[in-house]
C-alpha cells in the first residue's frame, strides 16, 4: 500500500531534519496550543513535491483521487471550490466571451465573470412551491439558450443545489456537446455522489467536462479543501493549470492536502460500508419521523427530479411556526445545529461520519416539537393563511434580473451611497444575497426594483442574513450616481 501524505509528514516530523526554511514556526511551538498540528505543517521541501508542478507524492495522491472518481485528471484545491470555479470558467471562456449561467449559482461564478469581463446569459431554474427552493435546471431551456446564442463558450450549472436538488446532467451534457460546448458542474455539495446506489451518480461519470467538489462540505476533510476533475478534449488543460496557479496560493498547506489524501483513502477502502450505514441511518430516521403530522420531510419521489438522500429538508410551511423558529428550538433546546434556515424550511446535512445517536436525537426532537405544534394556534405570523402563503412565495421569487451594466463595467463609475428605501430604479454596485446560500438577489450593475426592495425588507424582518453591501445593517446601498 502506498505511503499516505500524513504518514510521510509524521515520519519527517519525528526525524532529525532541522528546518532552516519556511514556515516560521519551525515545527516547534514550544508546547503552546495546537503544537501537534504544527509538527506536520511544512512547505515544498525536498521529497514533498509541489502542488503546482506535481511530480511525486502529490501527483500520486491526485492520481488516486482521479481513479476514485474515474476522471482523466484531478487537482487538489486548497482555496475551496471557489478557486476551482474561478479556474474552470477562466480556462473555458475567452476574455469578454459569453457563458450560459444558471442564475442560482454561488457568488464564485459571478466573481469569475467579473474578473474575466464575461457576458453571462442567465437561465432561471423554476422555483418549487412547497419549499420555495430552486428546481432542477430544465434541459429544454439550455437547448433554447444555446440555439439563440451560438457564441456561448461554456455552460455552468450547480448540481446538486445547496438544498439537494439534482439536475439531469447527462442530458445537459449531451445537449451542449452536440455543439461542442463544455459543461462545468459546480458539484460542491455532491463530492459524495457516485459511491452508492442510494445516492445520485456524480457528474464526472455523467460526462461533464469539469466538475468541482468541495470535499470539505459532505466528506470527512478539512474546511477549504476541494477537487477539480477534468475530462475530454473540450478543455485546454494548459489553461487550467495556468489559472489554478493564478487563483491558488503558492504556499498550499500540507495539513489540508494530507486531509484530502486521507479522505480519498477512506473512500477507496470503506465507501461501501460507510455509505450503506449512512443510507440505513437515513431510512431509520425517516421511519421514526413517519408519525410527524405537521413538519414534513422532503424525500425522493416528492418531485420529478433526483434528490440527494443525505439532505434533511424539514418543511414547516403548513405549521404555525417559521423555519427560523424551528432552527432556534433545535439549537437551544436540543443542541442540534442545523446547516441552514429559510422562512418555511430548515436544512441539515448528513454525511458518512454521522452517528446513529445524532439521527436518534434529531428524530426525537422533531417528534416532540411536532406534538407541541398540535396545540399551537394556526398562523403564528398573525396573518391570514392566504397572505402567509403569498409572502412565503414572494420570499423566493427573485424575478429576472434587470441588467443595466456588466459586472466589470462599474468599477470606475461614479457612485453614491443612499438609503436602501430610496434605491428603487437605481443601479446597485453591490451584491445582495442571503448567506447561506450566497446566490445573488442583485448583482452589481443590476436595477433595484420595488419587488426586490420588498423582498429584502421581508428577509430582514424575518431575521435572515442579508449580506453583500458594505452596510451590514442593510439600511444603505451603494448605487451608480
Ligand atoms: C454551490 C456552491 N458552490 C461553491 C461554493 C464555494 O465553495 P467553497 O466554500 O469550498 O469555496 C459554495 C459554498 O458554499 C456553494 O454553496
Question: What does this protein structure show overall?
Answer:
- By secondary structure, the protein is of the alpha+beta class.
- It folds into four domains: 1-48, no CATH class; 50-267, Type I PLP-dependent aspartate aminotransferase-like (Major domain) (Aspartate Aminotransferase, domain 2, 3-Layer(aba) Sandwich); 271-384, Aspartate Aminotransferase, domain 1 (Alpha-Beta Complex), CATH 3.90.1150; 398-480, Molybdopterin biosynthesis moea protein, domain 2 (Alpha-Beta Complex), CATH 3.90.105.10.
- It is 36% helix and 15% strand.
- It is built from 14 helices and 18 strands.
- The chain has helices at 5-13, 35-39, 57-69, 80-92, 107-116, 139-148, 169-178, 215-218, 237-247, 254-288, 323-332, 356-374, 385-396, 450-461; strands at residues 73-77, 98-102, 119-123, 152-158, 165-166, 183-186, 210-213, 226-230, 296-297, 306-307, 311-315, 340-341, 345-349, 415-419, 432-434, 440-442, 466-467, 476-480.
- The strands form five sheets. The chain has a seven-stranded mixed sheet with strand order 1-8-7-6-4-2-3, with helices on both faces. Strands 9-11-13-12 form a four-stranded antiparallel sheet. The protein has a three-stranded antiparallel sheet with strand order 16-15-17.
- β2, α5 (107-116) and β3 form a beta-alpha-beta unit.
- α3 runs parallel beside α10 and α4 (80-92) packs across α5.
- The N and C termini lie far apart (64 Å).
- The model has no long low-confidence stretch (mean pLDDT 93).
- Pyridoxal-5'-phosphate (PLP) binds at residues 80-82, 106, 108, 158, 162, 186, 188-189, 214, 226, 437-438.
Amino acid at each position: 500500500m502506498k505511503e499516505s501524505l500524513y504518514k510521510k509528514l509524521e515520519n519527517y516530523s519525528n526525524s532529525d531534519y532541522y528546518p532552516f526554511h519556511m514556515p516560521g514556526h519551525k515545527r516547534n511551538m514550544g508546547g503552546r496550543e495546537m503544537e501537534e498540528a504544527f509538527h506536520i505543517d511544512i512547505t515544498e521541501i525536498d521529497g514533498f513535491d509541489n502542488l503546482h508542478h506535481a511530480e511525486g507524492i502529490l501527483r500520486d495522491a491526485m492520481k488516486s483521487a482521479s481513479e476514485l472518481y474515474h476522471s482523466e485528471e484531478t487537482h487538489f484545491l486548497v482555496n475551496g471550490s471557489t478557486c476551482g470555479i474561478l479556474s474552470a470558467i477562466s480556462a473555458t471562456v475567452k476574455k469578454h466571451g459569453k457563458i450560459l449561467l444558471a442564475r442560482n449559482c454561488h457568488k464564485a461564478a459571478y466573481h469569475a465573470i467579473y474578473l474575466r469581463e464575461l457576458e453571462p446569459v442567465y437561465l432561471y431554474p423554476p422555483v418549487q412551491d412547497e419549499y420555495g427552493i430552486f428546481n432542477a435546471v430544465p434541459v429544454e431551456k439550455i437547448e433554447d439558450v444555446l440555439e439563440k446564442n451560438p457564441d456561448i463558450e461554456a455552460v455552468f450549472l450547480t448540481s446538486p443545489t445547496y438544498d439537494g436538488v439534482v439536475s439531469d446532467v447527462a442530458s445537459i451534457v449531451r445537449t451542449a456537446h452536440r455543439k461542442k460546448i463544455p459543461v462545468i458542474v459546480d458539484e460542491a455539495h455532491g463530492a459524495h455522489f457516485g459511491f452508492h446506489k442510494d445516492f445520485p451518480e456524480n457528474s464526472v461519470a455523467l460526462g461533464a467536462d469539469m466538475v468541482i467538489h468541495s470535499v470539505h462540505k459532505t466528506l470527512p476533510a478539512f474546511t477549504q479543501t476541494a477537487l477539480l476533475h477534468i475530462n475530454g478534449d473540450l478543455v485546454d488543460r494548459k489553461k487550467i493549470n495556468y489559472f489554478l496557479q493564478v487563483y491558488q496560493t503558492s504556499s498550499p498547506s500540507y495539513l489540508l492536502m494530507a486531509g484530502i489524501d486521507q479522505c480519498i483513502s477512506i473512500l477507496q477502502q470503506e465507501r461501501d460500508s460507510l455509505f450503506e450505514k449512512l443510507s440505513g441511518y437515513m431510512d431509520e430516521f425517516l421511519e421514526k419521523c413517519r408519525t410527524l403530522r405537521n413538519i414534513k420531510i422532503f424525500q425522493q419521489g416528492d418531485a420529478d427530479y433526483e434528490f440527494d438522500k443525505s439532505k434533511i429538508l424539514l418543511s414547516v410551511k403548513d405549521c404555525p411556526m417559521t423555519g427560523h423558529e424551528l432552527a432556534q428550538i433545535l439549537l437551544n433546546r436540543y443542541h442540534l445545529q442545523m446547516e441552514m434556515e429559510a422562512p418555511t424550511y430548515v436544512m441539515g446535512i448528513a454525511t458518512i461520519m454521522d452517528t446513529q445517536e445524532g439521527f436518534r436525537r434529531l428524530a426525537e426532537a422533531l417528534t416532540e416539537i411536532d406534538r407541541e405544534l398540535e396545540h399551537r394556534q394556526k398562523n403564528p405570523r398573525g396573518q391570514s393563511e392566504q397572505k402567509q402563503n403569498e409572502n412565503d412565495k414572494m420570499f423566493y421569487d427573485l424575478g429576472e434580473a434587470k441588467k443595466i451594466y456588466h459586472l466589470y463595467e462599474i468599477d470606475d463609475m461614479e457612485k453614491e451611497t443612499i438609503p436602501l428605501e430610496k434605491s428603487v430604479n437605481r443601479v446597485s454596485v453591490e451584491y445582495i444575497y442571503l448567506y447561506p446560500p450566497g446566490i445573488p438577489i442583485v448583482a452589481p450593475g443590476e436595477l433595484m426594483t420595488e419587488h426586490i426592495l420588498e423582498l429584502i425588507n421581508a428577509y430582514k424582518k424575518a431575521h435572515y442574513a442579508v449580506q453583500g453591501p458594505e452596510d451590514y445593517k442593510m439600511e444603505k446601498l451603494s448605487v451608480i450616481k
